[in-house]
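haha ok so turns out i had the wrong file open the whole time. this is the CORRECT one, sorry everyone. sequence first:
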Amino acid sequence: MLHISITTRPISNINNKRTFLFNVLVENVEDLLQLSHEYQVKQHIFDPCVKFLEDQPKTRENVMKILALSKLYNLEKVHQGCIDLLKNMRLESLSETVHLQNLDKEETQYYLTQRIERLETVLDEVYPQFFGVVASLMSHLITNQGIKRCGKHVVYGTFSRTVSYLPIRDCPGCRSMLSAMVEKDTCNRYGGHDENHFDSNLFSVMQDFSKLKN
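then structure:
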């Protein structure tokens, strides 16, 4: 909630001041914006309303209303805040929020493109981190758990500095080390079902992960 204070000064009596206090809410911000636009009251009403929309947390419940206002009044920062929320939604949530089935082709393509670009950005960031963690964990287990080394990529218990995640992914020796690593994991040995885990599907996940980068 944001407060707007407006003081009027009649010409006939400069000491007779009247102050009006408005509470800017999601429920009335549209009316206040329309009022400010109609009477060109930018400093005292329009700007505070814009500030309110910029700071207002965007949720599934309010994002479409705020997005519509950002388009109507050309509020770029507010618009980007809405898009940032929408492009981080899963497809099902996105579809329910923007009502994809009711949009024209151009609008549908816009929202889906934003989502795809977001996923590709995350993939570019996560991909080397993921394979780096796998390689580091394998090196640790080679040294401490006696796992058989890959003669092609492992030197003195650690991966060669020149090796990347691509040869690790495609190497039978590294595949064997990975299988041994899964077998050594305590959760796998004793039937753990932690949501955050790795198991015998890890190598398949690595392969699928790599395909997304093509």
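Residues 152 and 171 are 9 Å apart (CA to CA).
again sry for the mixup
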